[in-house]
From TrEMBL:
GO cellular component: cytosol
Record-given protein name: AraC family transcriptional regulator
Single GO MF descriptor: DNA-binding transcription factor activity
Keywords of the record: DNA-binding, Transcription, Transcription regulation
Length: 336
């Protein structure tokens, strides 16, 4: 292995581990400390790069603390990858799920240089293979976490239980195979030569990503009948803003109304769509800053901002102080 190369992975993966640990009743701060990693530093810079040796040490500590060989599957359910701007760009530029998957190797290469992700094409199946680079130690749990998050992403787009054909894993056969079969909803083979998740092409090609995203947003509007127009718009903004800033055109489609009708109705109330969007962002910003430990970067992404600077400037305009100052002031008041 070339010693000049530093093998890394995106730090956000370790945040998924922290979230899964906390949700499972473990002390994530203690686990990270034992692995020689500052969880606070990771929370403040989730898009930074973490040395793969540190990441592997963290996985070993997780295995020791949890005593659950399948814990990587749980971590995958807490993945923040869907909020990564590279992933969102990949989704937006693809017409079908098959195109999304075909773009995965270049996408994943931007997140980690410690493994090789390749696609294996057969007439009926598409295989997603993960191979550690020579001399690089990768935890079995990290492979499980990647495939679990991968399945979660597709499940988020497609209501189908037949898109996975089977899964091959290099890891030794565990005493209890059920967590893997339950997670992937298919046959899982252990002690194989390569790690590969095999997908049914026929399922992947029949779904349009753009239609799936629109249908997903529209589904959230079914319980809005008894709300006022302003309340409906606020609810739809809330449900979709973490993916990207919603537009009036998108909201109009979800409400089955014309843009002109919405604008006219809001004008009668002395409001505009931008007013409602700003109010919802202010409300959510205060919630995230005072009720969570999310970093400013993650909060800005949760509010649909393309970069943290835009959020910070907007917040400064709203409250005459920066997000970090606002959070610190609230903490100081609580201590008194």
């Amino acid at each position: 292995m070339d010693q000049a190369i530093k093998y890394t992975t995106i730090a956000a993966w370790s945040l998924s581990i922290a979230n899964a640990l906390d949700a499972s009743g473990f002390n994530s701060n203690e686990v990270f400390k034992n692995a020689g990693i500052s969880l606070t530093d990771i929370q403040n810079a989730p898009n930074s790069l973490l040395d793969i040796k540190q990441m592997t040490a963290l996985w070993k500590e997780v295995a020791l603390i949890t005593q659950k060989p399948h814990f990587g599957l749980i971590v995958g359910q807490y993945s923040n990858i869907k909020k990564n701007h590279i992933y969102n760009h990949l989704i937006k530029k693809s017409d079908s799920l098959l195109q999304v998957l075909e773009g995965l190797p270049s996408y994943y290469g931007k997140l980690s240089n410690s493994v090789c992700l390749t696609l294996n094409n057969t007439p009926h199946l598409l295989g997603v293979t993960i191979s550690p680079l020579e001399g690089v130690e990768i935890s079995d749990m990290s492979i499980d976490a990647f495939y679990s998050s991968f399945v979660s992403i597709i499940n988020d787009l497609v209501d189908s239980d037949s898109f996975i054909h089977h899964v091959d894993l290099v890891r030794n056969k565990p005493k209890n195979k059920r967590p893997w079969s339950d997670s992937f909803n298919c046959e899982t083979k252990f002690a194989q030569e390569v790690n590969c998740l095999w997908l049914n092409k026929s399922v992947l090609t029949q779904f349009s990503v753009k239609n799936l995203m629109l249908e997903k947003k529209m589904a959230s509007s079914f319980d809005l009948d008894k709300m006022s127009l302003t309340e409906k718009i606020e609810r739809l903004i809330h449900s979709s803003i973490a993916n990207s800033e919603p537009t009036l055109d998108e909201i109009a489609v979800m409400l089955n109304m014309s843009v002109r009708s919405i604008s006219r109705s809001l004008k009668e109330e002395g409001l505009t769509f931008r007013d409602i969007l700003k109010h919802k962002r202010q409300e959510l910003a205060v919630h995230y800053l005072t009720k969570t430990e999310e970093s400013i970067l993650i909060i800005s992404e949760n509010l649909g901002y393309k970069n943290m600077g835009n959020f910070t400037r907007a917040f400064q305009t709203w409250f005459a102080q920066s997000p970090s100052q606002y959070r610190e002031d609230c903490r100081n008041k609580c201590r008194k």
